[in-house]
Design a protein that fits this description.
Strands 1-2-5 form a three-stranded antiparallel β-sheet. It has a two-stranded antiparallel sheet with strand order 3-4. The longest helix is centred in the first third of the chain and has 19 residues, at about 35-50. It has helices at about 5-15, 20-30, 35-50, 80-85, 90-105, 115-130, 135-155, 170-180; strands spanning about 60-65, 70-80, 160, 165-170, 185-195. It contains eight helices and five strands. Helix 1 (about 5-15) packs across helix 2 (about 20-30), helix 1 packs across helix 3 (about 35-50) and helix 6 (about 115-130) crosses helix 7. The chain is of the alpha+beta class. The chain is globular.
Length: about 200
């Protein structure tokens, strides 16, 4: 099957994957770009998991100030080398994350960062709210767990839908970036200001 330069260019812009990986994915999908995109994202994600344990000693701090000058944010973004930290694509990634933080106002970086007392307080509140549903205890427990996950998903940065692509979470977006840059990438601290 012949793979066109336009197909390669389109998928390269979307994923940042290498040309040979893109060509192979298009050929294996029989020319279906959506299937090829899914295959590439799956591959980039799995290669990102291998990189997650590597030490991040370089990086940068990026800030975003909204046009009304009433909302702003700052984020630390770490990578393994200065070579990647100085890359314009990495700076753009940091800027997109700062923009996301300003827009979506996350309170925690990951689910593990939600304090147990905050989690338990919300669980008590939901248990009280749903206790009169007359459901079996196991079903009630599943309902409450689902509501808890949904509630905290909106507060956890890595689980929020990415503001520039609602089909991806911020965590998924970071994994794609790891595949693109070939390095472990981590978000450090972040802060949001609003007047």
């Amino acid at each position: 099957m012949a793979v066109s330069a336009e197909q390669i260019k389109e998928l390269r812009e979307k994923t940042g994957a290498g040309i040979s990986d893109i060509k192979k994915a298009i050929e294996e999908s029989g020319g279906d770009l959506e299937k090829a995109l899914t295959a590439i994202e799956r591959k980039l994600g799995s290669s990102a998991n291998k990189r997650m344990g590597r030490e991040t000693k370089a990086g940068l701090v990026e800030a975003y100030i909204h046009s009304n000058s009433k909302v702003g944010s700052m984020v630390e973004l770490f990578c393994e080398t200065d070579f990647v930290a100085l890359n314009s694509g990495f700076r753009e990634l940091a800027h997109d994350l700062a923009l996301h933080i300003a827009a979506m106002n996350p309170r925690y970086l990951s689910s593990e960062d939600v304090p147990s007392e905050v989690w338990e307080e919300e669980k008590r509140h939901l248990t009280e709210e749903f206790k009169n549903l007359n459901k079996p205890p196991q079903i009630l427990k599943e309902i409450i767990e689902g509501k808890l996950k949904s509630h905290f998903k909106n507060m956890v940065l890595t689980e929020q839908s990415f503001v520039k692509d609602q089909d991806k979470t911020v965590g998924g977006f970071l994994k794609e970036a790891m595949g693109k840059f070939g390095e472990n990438i981590k978000i450090g601290k972040f802060v949001r200001f609003e007047i």
